[in-house]
């Protein structure tokens, strides 16, 4: 993620202390390709449409997202809204959505999945995708605005991640449950799988062994589902068992959960993120299968419809953003620039401003496609993540060929110690991000010591 870090650092000097990353971020991912015509204005235009049509103020600074039935709110929509608003640097909306979420939680601490307008439970208990999106959005909020104000984003993120671990991951199997009150090996939803988030959760909470296992299980379930059902490309089913087989518990869902429909359609987007952020090989393999299905089997993005049987035969009829955009995200790992460019332009040209699902997902997809759905610095896979007083200190990348970035409290002292034990550099930080340039020094093991008041931490770094 070196390019992302350098770009993010460059933006820091343009912003006030209160906010780290304004919109647009315009990140160029270190993995995959990006559309030639990508333009953050396209993402902003869609955000404005989404916000105008689906955001509604409640009382007390709370905000909600209007569902298909505008008098209802679903937790999924709150999670999507938190992602969009935090990346758009829209703090007022983000805070209002998170407060709404917390106003409507059940005894496990997850939001009841459907609410009547601003209050009143219409559908009890959680939907796991909402928790995953909300928890990751809180990590981004901690990066954006720190956690010293009225909302402690960092503590709230850690609390929600712990709730997900306890109530929404099946014990001992690492299968993601679709809700806090049901599912696991008997029934799960592949479109909820968010392995990139899991890696960030593990780093953020110092629990990577657990969350990496959840990520690995996601690919096991997906690949088993594709293999057992002779799927074309990456056409996973909406619902399945942890074994990948169809679930007898999915009878109440569309086509008994056996087809690639409005649940499964989101899977290429969620999995593509794991490749773009982390370069995960399983993610690339899946995303390329999904992209090649459109490019080769369908003859291009313009021929996408809203539903397929797993063998690739058509069962839908509409050409919309939910399906087009997820496949466009997959094309970022598909290695075919012309196909990605056509997919981006196809998505950008779709106009469904009053459709909750299509417009919301289109906006999320456009944020990723334009480099505005990025991995924040406080969630990167670093060798070190520890507490110095109340601030999180991270150091990355490690190893490095030349530069290291230290994320530490302002006015800390950073000392660099050579392999021979001599202090070769010492400086006082003026911001939370400090770049240490060792390009002129020989490769080897160096020590970087961060001192803040009476506390200090020394970490090893490797200069390649």
From the structure above, extract its key features.
464 residues, alpha+beta, Glycosyltransferase, Immunoglobulin-like, 2 domains, 4-stranded antiparallel beta sheet, 13 helices, disordered N terminus, Secre_tail, cellulase activity, Glyco_hydro_8
Task: Describe the protein's topology.
Blueprint: H1 2-12, H2 40-54, E1 55-57, E2 63-65, E3 72-74, H3 75-87, H4 91-103, E4 114-116, E5 121-123, H5 128-145, H6 153-167, H7 195-205, H8 208-228, H9 267-278, H10 281-297, H11 321-330, H12 337-349, H13 356-369, E6 384-388, E7 391-396, E8 403-407, E9 413-417, E10 423-428, E11 433-437, E12 444-452, E13 455-463
Antiparallel strand pairs: 1-2, 3-4, 4-5, 6-7, 7-8, 8-11, 9-10, 9-12, 12-13
Helix pairs in contact: 2-13, 3-4, 3-5, 3-13, 5-6, 5-7, 7-8, 9-10, 9-11, 10-11, 11-12, 11-13
Can you give a write-up of this model?
It is an enzyme of class 3 (hydrolase). Keywords: Carbohydrate metabolism, Cellulose degradation, Glycosidase, Hydrolase, Polysaccharide degradation, Signal. It catalyses: Endohydrolysis of (1->4)-beta-D-glucosidic linkages in cellulose, lichenin and cereal beta-D-glucans. The chain has 464 residues and is of the alpha+beta class. The chain has two domains: 378 residues, Glycosyltransferase; 80 residues, Immunoglobulin-like, CATH 2.60.40.3080. The strands form four sheets. The protein has a four-stranded antiparallel sheet, covered by helices on one side. Strands 10-9-12-13 form a four-stranded antiparallel sheet, with no helix packed on it. A hairpin with a 2-residue loop joins strand 6 and strand 7. Helix 7 packs antiparallel against helix 8. The N terminus is likely disordered.
């Amino acid at each position: 993620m070196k390019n992302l870090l350098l770009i993010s650092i460059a933006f820091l000097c343009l912003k006030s202390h209160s906010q780290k990353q304004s919109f647009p971020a315009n990140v160029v991912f270190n993995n995959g390709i990006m559309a030639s015509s990508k333009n953050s204005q396209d993402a902003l235009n869609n955000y404005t449409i989404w916000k105008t049509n689906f955001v509604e103020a409640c009382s007390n600074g709370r905000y909600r997202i209007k569902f298909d039935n505008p008098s209802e709110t679903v937790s999924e929509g709150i999670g999507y809204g938190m992602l969009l608003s935090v990346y758009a640097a829209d703090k007022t909306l983000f805070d209002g959505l998170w407060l709404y979420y917390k106003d409507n939680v059940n005894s496990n601490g997850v939001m009841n999945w459907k609410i009547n307008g601003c209050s009143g439970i219409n559908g009890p208990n959680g939907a796991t995708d909402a928790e995953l999106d909300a928890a990751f959005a809180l990590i981004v909020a901690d990066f954006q605005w720190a956690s010293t104000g009225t909302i402690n984003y960092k503590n709230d993120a850690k609390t929600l991640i712990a709730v997900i671990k306890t109530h929404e991951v099946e014990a001992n199997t690492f299968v993601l449950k679709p809700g806090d009150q049901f599912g696991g090996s008997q029934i799960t939803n592949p479109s909820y799988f968010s392995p990139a988030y899991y890696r960030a959760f593990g780093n953020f909470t110092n629990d990577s062994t657990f969350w990496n296992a959840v990520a690995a299980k996601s690919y096991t379930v997906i690949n088993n589902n594709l293999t057992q059902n002779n799927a074309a490309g990456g056409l996973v089913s909406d619902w399945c068992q942890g074994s990948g087989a169809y679930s007898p518990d999915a009878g109440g869902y569309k086509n008994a959960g056996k087809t690639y429909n409005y649940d499964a359609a989101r899977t290429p987007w969620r999995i593509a993120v794991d490749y773009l952020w982390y370069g995960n090989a399983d993610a690339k393999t899946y995303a390329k299968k999904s992209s090649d299905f459109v490019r080769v089997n369908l003859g291009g993005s313009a021929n996408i419809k809203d539903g397929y049987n797993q063998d690739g035969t058509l069962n839908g009829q509409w050409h919309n953003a939910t399906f087009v955009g997820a496949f466009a995200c997959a094309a970022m790992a598909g290695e075919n620039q012309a196909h990605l460019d056509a997919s981006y332009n196809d998505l950008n040209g779709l106009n469904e401003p009053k459709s909750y699902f299509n417009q919301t997902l289109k906006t999320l997809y456009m944020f990723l496609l334009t480099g505005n759905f990025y991995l924040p610095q406080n969630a990167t896979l670093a060798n070190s993540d520890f507490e110095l007083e109340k601030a999180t200190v991270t150091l990355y990348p490690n190893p490095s060929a030349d530069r290291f970035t230290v994320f530490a409290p302002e006015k800390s002292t950073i000392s660099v110690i050579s392999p021979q034990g001599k202090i070769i550099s010492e400086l006082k930080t003026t911001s939370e991000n400090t770049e240490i340039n060792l390009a002129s020094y020989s490769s080897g093991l160096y020590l970087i010591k961060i001192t803040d008041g009476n506390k200090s931490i020394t970490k090893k770094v490797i200069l390649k």
